[in-house]
Design goal:
By secondary structure, the chain is an alpha/beta fold. It has helices at about 5-15, 20-25, 30-45, 60-85, 105-115, 130-135, 200-210, 225-230, 280-305; strands spanning about 50, 55, 90-100, 120-125, 145, 155-170, 180, 190-195, 215-220, 240, 250-255, 265-270. It comes from Mycobacterium saskatchewanense.
Amino acid sequence: MNVDELHWFVVLAETEHMTEAAQKLNVAQPTLSRGLKRLERELHAPLFDRVNNRLHLNAYGRIMLEHSRRGLAEIRAADERIAALRDPDSGTVRLAFLHSMASYLVPDVLRRFRLETPRVRFDLRQAAGHEIVELLTGGRVDLAITGPRPDSGDFGWHQLLTERLCLVLPRNHRLADRRRINLAETEGESYIALGTDFALRGITNDLWAAEGINPRVVFEAMEIATIEGLVAAGLGVGVVPMPPPHRREPAAVYVSLSNPRAKRPIGLAWPHERPIPPPAQRFAAFVKAGQHRTYGETRDAQQRRPHE
């Protein structure tokens, strides 16, 4: 069982299509097919069900996919650690981050870090909070900037800042001229919210429950920007982190929430179960050394505006 064939299997499992996988891997389809047959012979089990000339990952295959991803991640981490020992100022940091961190926090962190270590490379992934947990658990990233803290005790955590949550409204809404508002005052409003898998939706659910609100959610979005856009179109209201001025939806108004628990902690997370490569350790140390204090101060300054 060689590394190349494990990688081939992972790509094939993700596509469930021999031709597409061969194109992605830049190998001949017969070569890929023979590699799969060798792997199945070694495991004494079929990894796919063949139905009408299509591949469908079966129970054996799902187990193999989980362990193959972890094994490949460990091999990649070993390569990176060896490379970093040979040249401590180079290497790759595999970092995942929330979509909402892409407009202000993550670019600022990377810019500051690269001023000190310009030869370190980054493999970046944008994802939702629950997807980030899967990326960390599966070894596909070393670190993550996420929030709130993952529920599992399998992760380390260093808090960077706390985002205040706000109510986003259409500009012509009856509450749009308020400086602050309690969520209880939105009883009966239509809501645009993230899907139930998202951590921010969990925080929002807790806020609704604390105020005894039975919300009418008319649409579940995949990104905060979608919530803001649909609110601006007049389809409802939403609860989102207070955005920096440069990325606010121009046709919407953002009003601070007075609810004490209307906040989202953002931090750096990493897996306890395995060591992270030296470049990632260096990046984590840089973030934890106090650089984040500027981000929190900047965030507070950006939020001081007439509608607070």
